[in-house]
Design a protein that fits this description.
By secondary structure, this protein is mainly α. It has helices spanning about 20-35, 50-65, 80-90, 105-115, 185-195, 205-220, 250-255, 260-270, 280-285, 300-315, 320-330, 340-350, 360-365, 365-370, 375-380, 385-400, 405-420, 425-435, 445-450, 455-460, and strands spanning about 5-10, 35-40, 75, 95-100, 140-145, 150-155, 160-165, 175, 200, 225-230, 230-235, 300. β1, α1 (about 20-35) and β2 form a beta-alpha-beta unit. It is elongated, with a radius of gyration of 32 Å.
């Protein structure tokens, strides 16, 4: 039994798409589950559109979500000579031929097919012509001699048996007239040379698979196994594209979705194991299999992603949570000041309440992070004379408190409720606005304890409350 080898083969022509991340994840998990290898192949043969910034973004994205690949990344453009060599072998053994049709002829064929409302298939004009008939002024493309009669069957590890009529696959181009190989030729040669045992990719590649199988058979290479994963759709049921909002990992990291949560969500998007929802990394590797992949498209659901992220926020170690918050702030906000870090660490237990993202925690902790209170102007209007008296009375009694805790603060609040003939809101709301700038936020005891005695006194002594 060969050692399992899988690959992820993106083109660096744009940022890595969320569907691509899931494909990479499934390949990586399958190879890890089988004690095999996982490789990254950068398919950069489209020289005009391929950019290093996209290649770097792909590598960075995989690293962010926890996917590591074996060895160096495999760069397709460095293997062009190997691809052309195989084209020449296919020509030599009669499995490919030179096609001298001009672009005008091809356009005319396409036009006629459109008028008849049938799919365009190249008419194989040059399939059996002699080299002597070739025009002198046209540089040929090389076409693969596809099977004409009968059917071909693919034993797909996800979709089951898939059968097509061979006449639906045209004699596809494997080498352009500028000497560059096409996708199906290059991918086949690379997969063979990389010793890939399993090709796991989106089911929009099914027709490519039938073409690539024919190349393998023509070269008498041992076929890999194929598994085609249903695509990811939007919540409305349309195919997800790179133009969709929230289609790249950056779209998630910048709102504070954590890598473990997104990885867990993508794992469960179209794959299941019993009724289990939450998977540690080790559990993901242990339980992942191709049998658990469904045959229908999955819908990308932002509310489920937020719910998964909220679960991770509530359940991960707070030290780890702080580190992730710190990294998030460095990347997308302002770095947490060193004198504020301990206060935020101590306060995470309540700052993370109801938080679905790291951005929510960032927003909840603004009153600690900022040296000056930013008042919400509508909320500030609630500070009337009665509220000012509550603030002043609290400040007077608070000065005598030595140790900050709910037990030492509660008697002061209860006394103020009584002496000001009000209720808990009548005391808590003015204090919350005075200390944080907003009537919304954590509990008043949590706010006071998190800020510390000196900071509370300083904020309550603000002349605007006098």
């Amino acid at each position: 039994m060969k050692k399992v080898a899988t690959r992820f083969a993106p083109s660096p022509t744009g940022p890595l798409h969320i569907g691509g991340v899931r494909t990479a994840l499934f390949n990586w998990l399958y190879s890890k589950n089988q004690k095999g290898e996982f490789h990254l192949r950068i398919e950069d043969t489209d020289k005009e559109r391929s950019k290093d910034e996209y290649k770097d973004q792909i590598i960075k994205s995989l690293k962010w979500i926890g996917i590591s690949y074996d060895g160096d990344e495999y760069i397709q453009s460095k293997k062009i000579e190997d691809h052309v060599k195989i084209v020449n072998e296919l020509l030599k053994n009669g499995c490919a031929y030179k096609c001298y049709c001009s672009s005008e002829e091809i356009e005319e064929q396409k036009k006629r097919a459109k008028q008849k409302k049938i799919p365009y298939i190249y008419d194989r004009k040059w399939r059996d012509k002699k080299e002597g008939d070739a025009p002198k002024d046209i540089k040929p493309v090389i076409r693969f001699k596809s099977k004409i009669g009968g059917t071909s069957q693919l034993k797909d590890l996800v979709q089951g048996d898939v059968e097509i009529d061979n006449n639906t696959i045209e004699d596809f181009i494997i080498l352009r007239n500028d000497g560059t190989p096409t996708y199906n030729l290059s991918a086949s040669v690379d997969d063979y040379q990389m010793k890939m045992t399993h090709i796991i990719r989106g089911d929009d590649h099914k027709i490519n698979t039938f073409k690539q199988i024919q190349i393998y058979q023509a070269m008498k290479w041992e076929l890999p196994f194929f598994a085609h994963i249903p695509l990811i759709h939007t919540i409305e049921g349309k195919k997800l594209s790179k133009r969709d909002k929230a289609s790249t990992l950056d779209d998630y990291s910048k709102i504070g979705i954590m890598p473990d949560a997104l990885r867990n969500y993508l794992l469960r998007l179209g794959w299941s194991y019993k009724d289990k929802e939450i998977f540690t990394l080790d559990e993901s590797i242990k339980h992942f299999n191709l049998e658990g992949i469904g045959k229908s498209p999955s819908k990308l659901d932002m509310s489920r992603i937020l719910s998964m992220n909220e679960h991770y926020i509530k359940n991960i170690d707070e030290k780890d949570l702080f580190n992730q918050l710190n990294d998030f702030c460095k990347l997308y906000k302002n770095e947490i000041k060193s004198d504020k870090k301990e206060k935020i660490k101590r306060s995470l237990t309540f700052l993370k309440n109801k938080a679905k993202t790291l951005e929510d925690i960032f927003n909840n902790s603004q009153y600690i992070m900022l040296d000056e209170v930013n008042f919400n102007q509508d909320d500030f209007k609630l500070i009337d004379n009665k509220a000012k008296k509550v603030i002043s009375d609290f400040n007077t009694q608070f000065g005598n408190v030595n140790k900050l805790s709910k037990e030492t603060l509660e008697p002061i609040v209860n006394e103020l409720i009584k002496s000001n003939n009000t209720n808990f809101k009548g005391v808590g709301q003015p204090l919350r606005i005075a200390l944080t700038g907003s009537k919304f936020g954590p509990g008043i005891y949590d706010i006071i304890i998190s800020l510390g005695k000196e900071e509370v006194i300083e904020r309550l002594n603000n002349k605007i409350f006098n």
